[in-house]
Structure formats: structure tokens, C-alpha cells
Design goal:
Elements (H helix, E strand, L loop, with lengths): L2 H19 L8 E4 L5 E3 H14 L5 E3 L3 E3 L6 E7 L1 H6 L5 E7 L5 E8 L4 E6 L5 E4 L6 E2 L9 E4 L5 H9 L4 E2 L4 H6 L7 E4 L4 H9 L5 E5 L2 E5 L2 H14 L2
Parallel strand pairs: 3-5, 11-12, 11-13
Antiparallel strand pairs: 1-2, 3-4, 5-6, 6-7, 7-8, 8-9, 9-10, 13-15, 14-15
């Protein structure tokens, strides 16, 4: 494990403590519109502050909340609180996302953490995606769940026509509302689908964790699946809906 990954882990531990054990209602207060276009809450900015404290020494950071933090070309991309609307609503599905780029702009590290159950997903360099618990040092290689029964369709509420086509075709799905985190679980579901323009903060770390899966990234949708047949079937539904 690199020093950068360890710093990400320490940052996640502190964020988890601040948002769960030290929770107070002021964390839900709204601030300014963030660089990603959403309204930042105090919880978002607190998580960002913690990441900057731990990761600032490793390069310039581009954050969904404050934009570019530093003076050089950004080499670290973070979503300090992935699923912040879930956090604000007391819905237990939110986490963090960190991606680090090398000098050539290629992804060198990806770390996604589920702050609710402590699932930690990591990919370093050319290594295989690995996972462990935030408070446990035992790593295991990420592997596919055989015959998963449900998929994940993020932004399903905004695309009822696609949702209807999936249901007609017999695809069951959930829409939990934290894109990077949902991508991290792509090995465990029948498919992942995101409709709309995916921002770097949303997908760059999560996509890195999908190694070995069929991945389709287009301007207005992202599809991931264990099965190329399923991925192409869903893409066909999307294309037919545009006609």
C-alpha cells in the first residue's frame, strides 16, 4: 500500500468520525454552490477540509466543492461526500471518492469508501482492485458475485422511459444515489447504469475499480456489467429511446 492510499484511509477515518460520532445539525447547513454545480453543505466542506489536510502534500486537488485547490495542474480529484443528499436525509448510503493522476494524466490510484458500513475499495497502479474494511487491515481481491439479482440505475427518477424499458425486459434495479459508491459495487450487481452527463468527480475513481467488467462510457450515459450481452442490451434500449 502506498503512502497516498494510507493517507486516504486516515482521511476517511476522520471523516467517518466527524460525520457519525460527532454529528450535529449544523453539518446540514447549506453554503455556496460548489464547483460541481450542486449546493455545498457544511458536511461537504468539512470532508473536503479533511482531505486537503491529508492529501495536500501529494499535489493540487480538484474538488467537487471548491474546485481547484493549489497552484499546479490538478493531480488529485475528489468528491468529499458522495451522496451528500442521502447524508442530509438520514439515508444510509454515502461515501467518498478519490482519484490520483500521474504526470501523464493516467490514473495511478483510486480510493472509494462507504462511510456507512466501512467498505473500502482501492486500486493502485496496475494492480487488481482490492477491498477491505476501513478499520481492518485484511485485504481481499474484488470478485464478481455469481448471478446477481439486481442492478443499479443512478438517476432513474429522471429517466422514467429507460426505467420502464428495463422493467419490461425483466431487469430489477435500485437507485441508491451515490454514483462513485455504486460503481464500486459494480462487481456485485447485474449492471450499473448512470444516465446524464457524468462529471469526473462522479466516475473517475469508480470506473477504475471496474477492471475486468464491460464498461461503456458515452457523453450521456455510463454502463457497466459483468456481461457484455447485458451491457449491449441496455445500450440498445437507450439508443432506441432516442429515436
Amino acid at each position: 500500500m502506498t503512502a497516498f492510499t494510507q493517507a486516504c484511509i486516515e482521511a476517511n477515518r476522520e471523516i467517518s468520525t466527524q460525520l457519525k460520532e460527532n454529528f450535529d445539525l449544523s453539518l446540514l447547513e447549506k453554503s455556496t454552490i460548489g464547483a460541481g454545480g450542486d449546493i455545498s453543505k457544511r458536511a461537504d466542506l468539512l470532508a473536503e477540509e479533511i482531505f486537503v489536510k491529508y492529501l495536500g502534500q501529494y499535489g493540487t486537488i480538484e474538488s467537487e466543492e471548491s474546485g481547484i485547490i493549489g497552484e499546479d495542474t490538478p493531480s488529485i480529484i475528489i468528491d468529499p461526500l458522495d451522496g451528500s443528499a442521502n447524508f442530509a436525509s438520514g439515508f444510509p448510503y454515502y461515501g467518498t471518492s478519490v482519484a490520483r493522476l500521474d504526470e501523464e494524466g493516467k490514473l495511478s490510484s483510486a480510493v472509494v469508501c462507504n462511510l456507512i458500513n466501512g467498505d473500502l475499495f482501492v486500486k493502485e497502479g496496475n494492480g487488481k482492485p482490492m477491498m477491505r474494511h476501513l478499520h481492518n487491515d485484511t485485504w481481499q481481491q474484488m470478485s464478481d458475485i455469481e448471478e446477481p439479482e439486481v442492478g443499479i440505475f443512478e438517476k432513474a427518477y429522471a429517466h422514467p422511459e429507460i426505467a420502464a424499458k428495463l422493467l419490461e425486459a425483466g431487469y430489477k434495479f435500485r437507485s441508491p444515489g451515490a454514483t462513485a459508491l455504486s460503481l464500486a459495487y459494480a462487481h456485485s450487481v447485474s449492471f450499473f447504469l448512470f444516465m446524464g452527463h457524468a462529471r469526473l468527480y462522479d466516475i473517475v475513481a469508480g470506473i477504475a475499480l471496474c477492471e475486468g467488467l464491460e464498461v461503456i462510457v458515452e457523453e450521456d450515459y455510463v454502463i457497466v456489467s459483468q456481461s457484455i450481452t447485458v451491457a449491449k442490451d441496455i445500450e440498445s434500449m437507450i439508443r432506441r429511446s432516442k429515436v
